[in-house]
């Protein structure tokens, strides 16, 4: 059996996020969907898996149902497949942030970097005046990254602020391009950097996953696997599972 996996997020005001938790969990459980969804006042983030019919039904409810009342009208959504159910249970968790940076001034609903679609990414990162940043944690970078990307060598995303303060300068680094797994970390990171005075900040729309889905391998600048936070461990071009990377994680 093949399962459909949906990675999703949206920054949107959800002042009632606490009240949404239990009915959202019940909805997923009723559909046989498993995975993790994070809810915060700033939005929703997570990855879930189920049958194709169940995932379609869940996405329809998120976008059009009474639970969110039409607020998820700009949901960033990416689909892939798994040969086995990649999650053991369904979790809906309440958080202060749907991705933790720890800077209340970084608000993607107010200011955010320039989105670059996968088809235009190669041209951007080949520009000599662009510094390319991988915003992910060190073990993710070790598994795979774009050619020429700067590894900030961070253990958690919240440490990205320290990397920027110590290693980057708005006067010297005038054009910054960044990427992450699905795009959510870059939304926060680009908002933060613009607030710190960096003039041009770009990020890969849909993240690495969308790039691997849309850009042919023959044209790709990506090397290695893209770590995903489930039992598949990593995906490659065409969002195909990479079993060979499971041993790398076991060695950590």
Automatic annotation (TrEMBL):
<protein>
    <recommendedName>
        <fullName>tRNA uridine(34) hydroxylase</fullName>
        <ecNumber>1.14.-.-</ecNumber>
    </recommendedName>
</protein>
<keyword id="KW-0819">tRNA processing</keyword>
<dbReference type="InterPro" id="IPR001763">
    <property type="entry name" value="Rhodanese-like_dom"/>
</dbReference>
<dbReference type="InterPro" id="IPR036873">
    <property type="entry name" value="Rhodanese-like_dom_sf"/>
</dbReference>
<dbReference type="InterPro" id="IPR020936">
    <property type="entry name" value="TrhO"/>
</dbReference>
<dbReference type="GO" id="GO:0006400">
    <property type="term" value="P:tRNA modification"/>
</dbReference>
<dbReference type="GO" id="GO:0016740">
    <property type="term" value="F:transferase activity"/>
</dbReference>
<comment type="similarity">
    <text>Belongs to the TrhO family.</text>
</comment>
<keyword id="KW-0560">Oxidoreductase</keyword>
<dbReference type="GO" id="GO:0016705">
    <property type="term" value="F:oxidoreductase activity, acting on paired donors, with incorporation or reduction of molecular oxygen"/>
</dbReference>
<dbReference type="InterPro" id="IPR040503">
    <property type="entry name" value="TRHO_N"/>
</dbReference>
<dbReference type="Pfam" id="PF17773">
    <property type="entry name" value="UPF0176_N"/>
</dbReference>
<comment type="function">
    <text>Catalyzes oxygen-dependent 5-hydroxyuridine (ho5U) modification at position 34 in tRNAs.</text>
</comment>
<keyword id="KW-0808">Transferase</keyword>
<dbReference type="Pfam" id="PF00581">
    <property type="entry name" value="Rhodanese"/>
</dbReference>
<feature type="domain" description="Rhodanese">
    <location>
        <begin position="126"/>
        <end position="220"/>
    </location>
</feature>
């Amino acid at each position: 059996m093949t399962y459909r996996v949906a990675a999703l997020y949206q920054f949107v005001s959800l002042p009632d996020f606490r009240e949404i938790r239990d009915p959202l969990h019940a909805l997923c459980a009723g559909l046989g969907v498993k995975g993790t969804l994070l809810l915060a006042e700033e939005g929703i983030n997570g990855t879930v898996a189920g049958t194709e019919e169940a995932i379609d039904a869940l996405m329809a409810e998120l976008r059009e149902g009474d639970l969110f009342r039409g607020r998820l009208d700009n949901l960033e959504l990416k689909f892939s497949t798994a040969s086995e159910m990649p999650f053991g249970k369904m979790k809906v968790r309440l958080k202060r942030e749907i991705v933790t940076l720890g800077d209340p001034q970084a608000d993607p609903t107010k200011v955010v970097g320039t989105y670059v679609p996968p088809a235009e990414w190669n041209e951007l990162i080949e520009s000599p005046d662009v510094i390319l940043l991988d915003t992910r944690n060190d073990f993710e970078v070790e598994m795979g990254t774009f050619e020429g990307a700067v590894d900030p060598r961070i253990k958690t995303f919240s440490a990205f602020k320290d990397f920027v303060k110590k290693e980057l300068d708005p006067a010297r680094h005038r054009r910054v391009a960044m990427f992450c797994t699905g795009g959510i970390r870059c939304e926060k990171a680009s908002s933060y950097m613009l607030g710190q005075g960096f003039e041009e900040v770009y990020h890969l729309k849909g993240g690495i996953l969308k790039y691997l889905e849309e850009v042919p391998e023959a044209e790709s600048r990506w090397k290695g696997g893209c770590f995903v936070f489930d039992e598949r461990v990593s995906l490659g071009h065409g969002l195909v599972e990479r079993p060979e990377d499971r041993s790398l994680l076991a060695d950590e």
